Amino acid sequence: MGDTGEDDGHPSERIRHELESLWKNIDFGHIQAVTHDTETRVFFESYLFEDAHIPALSVDVVAKAADSAEAVDDKTVVVDMMSGNSIEIQIAPPYLVKSVKERLEAKLGIPAFLQRIVAEIELEDGDNVSTHLGPEDGSTHLTMIRKDPPCITTEEFLKTIVFCVQNWETTLPECYTWYRFDTYREIPTTKQELFEWAERFKDMKHEPFTVETCLQSLDLWLETDDYKGHPEVFAQHISRLQSFLEGHCYSPSWIQVYDEPYGHDDDLEMVMFLAGRLRAAPETLMVGAVRLNCWI
Fold first, then answer.
1. DSSP bridge pairs for 122
2. Extended beta strands in 139-284, E state
3. 3-state helix, strand, coil in the chain (%, to 5)
4. Which residues form the Ubiquitin-like domain (predicted)?
């Protein structure tokens, strides 16, 4: 994982390098102009976590149990796929959409969280499919649409950055800096201790990456000085960043660690992350660490 400098020809590494290049070409002049005792410094690092703590996009069909014998009160459901194929399954009372997804996961290897089940409308997990079953033979046609993975959760993000590396100081320097100024202590000797600290941030702001969410976070920094808003060209740069992330990642995230710039001793800091599951390598999480700093 991480910025090891190895295998630069790998598609994931090429994408990470493109992210680095794109970031370096963003004009942060108005951010850097925020001055207290010193002007603002903008730090950025990117990482790849190939063994990220995120749900797999497929499951082992062979390991799943076959359909059991049909019970008297089972309902037959025929599910159509967008490919044109259909599959017949049986579900037991109370005939929930959740049960449909579980049976499809077992038979097709498509995780339930990637399935959209549609009748006349999209159905929720807790919906009862009985109202969509044919009155004559108790069977019906539903449609399953495979959807893109959602944004990672905050817990998945924190577990990934804590448990997927051996040494924050050498592998994730910006995360190491974050821990050090937040605690004024050395990194814990165990991963569990480090995760207990990280869990303090489980409720931090975590939204889809958009121009708006990114600029709103940076507004907090500008407001500490003579706030003038963001130049149009800067918004255009962030828009290009959004397009890049959406093109290469499923549902990219923007994570803001503190509710406002964090003051400690003689420093003012903000820590933010962008993160997304790579389309080219769905088990890999690409993360960008952003830190703003000035002396106060």
1. 118
2. 139-146, 205-208, 249-256, 262-264, 267-278
3. 35, 25, 40
4. 75-150
CB atoms < 10 A from the CB of 126, how many? 9
- 3-class DSSP assignment, residue 209: coil
Burial class (CB in 10 A: 0-12, 13-18, 19+), 56: exposed
Q: How far apart are CA 11 and CA 235, in angstroms?
A: 28
Q: Output the six-digit token pair for 242.
A: 């959004």
Q: Where are the beta strands (DSSP E) in 155-237?
A: 205-208
Tens digits of residue pLDDT in 13-71 = 999 999 999 999 999 999 999 999 999 999 999 999 999 999 999 887 744 445 554 56
DSSP secondary structure code for residue 66 in this structure: P
Non-local CB neighbours of 128 within 8 Å, separated by 6+ positions: 94, 95, 96, 97
| Nearest CA-CA partner of 271 in 200, 188, 170 | 200
Task: Identify the CA nearest to 188 among candidates 171, 170, 168, 213.
Answer: 168
